[in-house]
Amino acid sequence: MKRILGLLAIVLFMNACDDGELTVETINFDDVPVQKCSQKEILYKISDSKMLILAIPLENFRTDETPEGNPDEVEITGNIQVVYRQYNAAPTSANICDLVTSATPNLIEEWNATSGTIQITSTAIKSVNSITGITQITGYKHYIVFKDITFLRPDGSTQAYLGEDTFVFGNYNATISPLAFGFDEEASKSTCDSDNRIFNFNSSEAFILDLADYANLFQSSETTTPRIAYISATNKVNYRLYSGTINNAYFCAASVPATPTLAQSWIANNGVEAEGTGIIEVTTILASPGFFEHTIRLKKVTMTKGNSNFYMGDDYLYGKVITPE
C-alpha cells in the first residue's frame, strides 16, 4: 500500500499549483486504524491531512467466517464508493460523519473510484473463559482489500491500479451480542407424541438433544459409572435462538408456527471416540420413590454455524431431567 499510495502522492505533487494548493510528499495509511461513522454506513481512515473513505452498506459484512482463501467480493458501483481526499489541514470525523459535514478544513483534492473490487475476509473474534474454557464469539474482524481499482481525478483523467497492485484498506471490527446461553439446570423430556427429545429453554433460547440412544442413556436405574453416547447424525445436539419466547408447544406443532422466527441455529460437531470429543454423558440417581434424576453433561463439544464455531468447554452441565420409574 505504501508503494501505491506513494504514487498517488507523486501525482499530487506533480499537479500541485502555485495558488496555495498544498504539496504532499508522502501518503501513508498503513498504521492508521479503520474508523466507522456512528450515523452513516461509512468507514474511513485519517492520516495527517488525508482521508480514505469507504461508503458501503453494512449488510456486505457477513456475521460468519469466510472460507479460507475465498474472500467475499463486492464491486465498486452505485452506493458502494471509495474516495481519496486531501485537505489543507488535518480533517476529523466531522468532515465525513456529521449529517451536515464541516466546511473546514478546506478540501483540496478528491479522487473517486469508478471501478474495482472490494475483497472482504471475515474471521470471528472470540473471548475465552479462563476457568471453564468456554469460548464466545463477540464480533467479526473484516479484512478489506481493494483490487483493480480505477480513480477519476478532478482534471478528468484516470489513475488505475491493476493486476498485482492493491490497496489494503485494513481491518473493520464489528461487535455482536454473544449468545446468552442463560440456561438453568431444569431440562425436560419432550411432551410431543413419540418424541424422545430433551429440551432446555431460556426465553428465546432452546438447547435441544435429539437422541437415538435415549433408551440406553435414560434407564430407570442408578449408575455406578456414567452412561455415554457420542454426538452423531442420530444423536444430535442443537442450539437455536428465536425472535421471541420459545417453548415445548412450538416443537409439537404439526407445522412450524409463523412466530417466533428462527434467528440462529448452531449444530454440535460429531464426536470422535479416539479423541474423546463430542460426548453426551448421563449420570442417574433415585430422586424419590418412583422417580429418577438424570444429570446430563456435554464433554468437549464444539458448536458450528456456517464457517464459524465455538467451544463449550471440557465439561458443560446441560441440565437435569426427572423421569418416572
Question: What would your notes on this structure say?
Answer:
The protein has 325 residues and is mostly beta strands. It is built from 3 helices and 19 strands. The strands form 3 sheets. Strands 1, 2, 3, 4, 5, 6, 7 and 8 form an 8-stranded antiparallel β-sheet that branches. The chain has a 7-stranded antiparallel β-sheet with strand order 9-10-11-13-14-17-18, with no helix packed on it. Strands 12-15-16-19 form a 4-stranded antiparallel β-sheet, with no helix packed on it. The radius of gyration is 28 Å and the shape is elongated. The termini are far apart.
Summarize the structure.
With 325 residues, the protein is mainly β. It contains 3 helices and 19 strands.
Q: Write down the overall mean pLDDT.
A: 90
Which geometry do the CA atoms define?
A: elongated
Taking pLDDT < 50 over at least 5 consecutive residues as the criterion, the unreliable ranges are: 1-27
Q: Into which percent range does the helicity of residues fall?
A: under 10%
Proportion of beta-strand residues: over 45%
What is the number of helical segments per DSSP (H or I, 4+ residues)?
A: 3
Question: Sheet bearing the most strands, described?
Answer: 8 strands, antiparallel
- Rg to the nearest angstrom? 28 Å
| Category by helix and strand content | mainly beta
The end-to-end distance, rounded to whole angstroms, is 71 Å
Total beta strand runs? 19
List SSEs in N-to-C order. Answer: HEEEEEEEEEEEHEEHEEEEEE
